[in-house]
Amino acid sequence: MRVGVFYFPTDYGIEVGELAEALEARGYDALFVCEHTHIPTSRRTPFPGGGDLPKRYSHTHDPFVALGFAAAVTKTLKLGTGICLITQRDPIVTAKCVASLDMLSKGRFVFGLGGGWNVDEMENHGARYDMRFKLLRERVLAMKEIWTKDEAEYHGELVDFDPIWSWPKPSQRPHPPILLGGETDHTLRRVAEFCDGWFPRATATFDPKAQRARLDAAAKAAGRDPASLQMTVFRAPADAERLKPYRDAGVDRVLLEVPDLTRDEILQVLDKNAPLTR
Predict the structure, then answer these.
(1) Parallel, antiparallel, or unpaired for β 230-234 and 197-199?
(2) Nearest CA to 28 among 1, 52, 47?
(3) E strand map for 118-226
């Protein structure tokens, strides 16, 4: 089981390139970065975590720009979005961002994505909350066409374009692994239909064995080999004993949280947790 981290790449935090170098030097597998294009000041949508929305949500760099800086100073570190809000992104532009980053990093990109929770944020992008997963599905399928076809076209209800040329193509074939976030049975059916892995959050009651069994069952129901679907767990516990069940259950990767602290405090956390990578 591989151990990576996730981080909100903010304009006031540790520089992403320095963080990436520190992670690779300490043996971490991956850096996943979070995304919010903006936060509406209305705050009409309550924060799912309760209370005030943390500052980092409105201060994040663009994930693809941030990961480009991380790619430039590392050799082996996996680079992921955790999560990319694909409901708020044009699929043709995003397909090029993904392909460019994957090619320039020599095949190190992992595409974690989700539908999002902030209703007014996605409405500012012209997306409807009640249609977000239908939109997500069509955008993913359209991007797959762009990544795998010299002349790509897609004709759906919400995404529709005639044949186009778009290079580069991703280094990974047929494309970087697509991980879908969420915990519901609907999410698992979507994973089995058009993704390459599942990206659940580790809650207080998260049972790795039971959750891996849910993923395997969804794969079998869709006629897919369960071994073909990855499982990366978001915000896993930074504790060796508590991580053992994840390893035993066949979880492929866990992501530990890099806290919203100062540069020096973050490096201390990385040092503390580095033994978990071994």
Answers:
(1) parallel
(2) 1
(3) 152-155, 160-164, 178-181, 197-199
- Residue recorded with tokens 């981290």: 5
Q: Among candidates 278, 272, 269, which has minimal Cα distance to 14?
A: 269
CA dihedral 71, 235, 13, 24 (to 10 degrees): -30
Q: Where are the domains of the chain?
A: 2-277
Cα distance between residue 199 and residue 136, in whole Å: 15
Domain 2-277: CATH superfamily is: Luciferase-like domain (3.20.20.30)
Q: pLDDT, tens digit, for every residue of 102-149? A: 999 999 999 999 999 999 999 999 999 999 999 999 999 999 999 999
Q: Report the predicted TM-score, pTM, of the whole model to 2 decimal places.
A: 0.97
User: Are 68 and 98 spatial neighbours (Cβ–Cβ below 8 Å)?
Assistant: no
DSSP 8-class letter at 130: G
DSSP result, 58-127: GSBPPHHHHHHHHHHT-SS-EEEEEEEEGGGS-HHHHHHHHHHHHHHTTS-EEEEEE--S-HHHHHTTT-
For residues 253 and 259, give the distance between their C-alpha atoms in angstroms, rounded to a whole number: 19
**Cα 92 from Cα 35, distance rounded (Å):** 18
User: Which amino acid belongs to residue 85?
Assistant: L
